[in-house]
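User
Please review the sequence:
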Amino acid sequence: MTHLLLTGGLGFIGSHIVEQAIGRGWTVTVIDSLRSDVHATTDIPNWFTALDGNLDLIVADAGDASPSLLKSVDIVCHQAAKVGLGVDFTDAPDYVESNVAVTARLLAAMTNNAVRNLVLASSMVVYGEGLYRSAAGVVQPQARTVNDLRSGRFEPTGPDGEQLEPILISETDATDPRNVYAVSKLAQEHLSQSWARATGGRVVALRYHNVFGSRMPTGTPYAGVASLFRTSLANNQAPQVFEDGNQRRDFVDVRDVASANLAAMDWVLQQHPGIFRAFNVGSGTVRTIGQFAWALAEAMGGPKPVVTGEFRLGDVRHITASSDRIASELGWRARQDWADAIREFSTAPARLPVQAPDRSRAGKRRNLGR
């Protein structure tokens, strides 16, 4: 029986991975710090305690995995991370500590305990602005300037100021992180790739697109637009859509993302030593942020979205990636129907509003095995 160690297993995406792994009959050990900027309470959620299977929870930092914990583990799925664009650059030390330093400590612990299989939660933000086609060929444009954004010129332009057409980006294209969160996610990839070379480890990095679904955190600047829109609508307020709402994204249901993790774990366990492989994880359908806001507002019967023209430095205009590699190599495709997923998200349980970040780390083990 496969023994999975899942970091961040009480979080948004991690919670769905727990359910699917337990559904397979796996032994699952969850390690989660229960940070206050992710979890509004330190109580163990009902969905977790209701699971019927061989399940264990350790409340601790993911980087503090002990030898006794790792000795029987077959594979680690590392979901724990500080996510989102954040408030401002003062968040940078916490992003580096939570994402980069924790990952380094986790990999060191895995090295010392001969655990060689890892699935890493990465993000499409590592690509930056994405790829565009111009008359001269394919380009990755420079970051948009503050003056352009203030003037409502939201579309990136080519080297000579020419108009560009956004296209799908693949795993072989260059990365170009443009905010602290993106830098930290790419650093996680680089660390795990170096670890694979040094130890003979096997790594898959899953570059998630815009994930939405049940158990998203609410009331926090560290969540994505799907959570922000839902929070507004739940309060009978119009979703505030930045720029002109035409930013291209790929919105993918969290249940599909969880199944991609299980597919990646199956694949990793079969690979030769010393491999690192990145995969984009998306629905395969390009939509705009405005389209998502309108669809959710309609499903929730709430106020119509308002396009504000506001912007956030560090945001990119268009980023959508091809998920062909994961389909061809892992046999994975998103299965959830868009309309059904939106409708279910509109009424699905969400997390309570969270608090300011709490840097403290607990270390209490709670055994919930049955």
